[in-house]
Amino acid sequence: MNNAFNPEAAASLPPAEQRMIARRERLLGPAYRLFYDKPLHIVRGRGCRLWDADGNEILDAYNNVVSVGHAHPRVVEAVHEQMQTLCTHTRYLHAGALDYAEQLLDTMGGRAGDGHAMFTCTGSEANDLALRIARHHTGRRGVIVTSEAYHGNSAATAEFSPSLGDNSPLGTWVRRVPTPDSYRVPRAELTAWFSEHVRRQIRELERHGEGLAALVVDSMFTSDGIYVDPTELLAPVAEIVREAGGLFVADEVQCGFARSGEHTWGFQRHGIDPDIVTLGKPMGNGYPVAGIAVASEVVERFGHDMRYFNTFGGNTVAVAAAQATLDVIRDEGLAENANRTGAVLREGIEDLSKRFEQIGDVRGAGLYIGVEIVSDRAARTADGGEAARIVNGLREHGVLISATGAPGNVLKIRPPLVFSAADADRLLSALGDVLAA
């Protein structure tokens, strides 16, 4: 796991933290992981700021779950008001879910936008539901994902989430295509190269009797290393998938809700019309709410043949959180802010790259930025060790980011959408100090 704390290093930490880590391991077990060489004990958050147990202020440039900022007052108030009024499920009529679904679908356009919203609690559940619908609609089982994709941690979604590592087995019905690495594959060749890999894996699935149910893709290739260009990459792939009888599933769990700054949804940058769109993480600004938007004809037979109900998915409080988050993104112009502040960050990091050879590539859209760290610029040699040093160095400077990509060498900068130009300046100053060290 990128940026994970090594429990063997606990002896170097203060006694109080050692005791808390030991207690955590005893009570929560070995599967849980902590971030950073020195784990954080966070007790409070507001906007893009966090405070630890010692009162130190930390700039959060990593957490997109709280997309409109930690403890945003409008979201807090909406959840509080609804919780003290009513919390119940979707088997009763309530206007909130309908109003929200209508506004959500209106942001998407296309077949999914003209279709239906279905609510879950998590992005994993959303991708799980998308898989069930795709298989029912197509009568096929096969799924294609990118080489380091992450789509969830349910039993089914873990089987098509290769980023979980070699000890997490992929399904026999899963095929991977390489990351569309715009840093190492010439741009003029990338679209044809990627399309051919998709064709090849479709043939493999057909040869083994699975057939293609869906290609599931995060259009900003988050876990692969954040690759946002060229934006003509996915349209030909969508056509290839449909010609094979499969569905195009746009996983917007990490890259959606105005993250790219240019559009509300990542798939819109590519000008494609997905069959299913899956949603999660930032949808309720920390309250667990997720779901899918699905074309009517894709879900029609599933809806007729199967029953779908989710006890907590789309409950009145979840919808209140989601509605308030969507309202804030619109009313505070957060897509525009992501565009502006993201440009400041990218330009600042590109300036740093003129001084520091470790920076091989700077890429991103809006407030989703990947910085490729290399040991040899000419050879474009990934350097995960140096990336880890930078991530932990920034943590010591009171700035939080993480790393992504198979070698863990791409700095992952993904702050709340309320990140300001002043916040960007603080991050850039700290990054310059860490690189100089």
TrEMBL record:
PROSITE patterns listed in its UniProt record: AA_TRANSFER_CLASS_3
Pfam families: Aminotran_3
Biological-process GO terms, alphabetical: antibiotic biosynthetic process
Keywords: Aminotransferase, Antibiotic biosynthesis, Pyridoxal phosphate, Transferase
Keyword match Oxidoreductase: no
SUPFAM superfamilies registered for this protein in UniProt: PLP-dependent transferases
Transmembrane segments: none
GO terms, molecular function: pyridoxal phosphate binding; transaminase activity
Protein family per UniProt: Belongs to the class-III pyridoxal-phosphate-dependent aminotransferase family.
PANTHER family associated with the record: ALANINE--GLYOXYLATE AMINOTRANSFERASE 2-LIKE, PTHR45688
Protein's name in the database: Aspartate aminotransferase family protein
Source organism of this protein record: Amycolatopsis acidicola
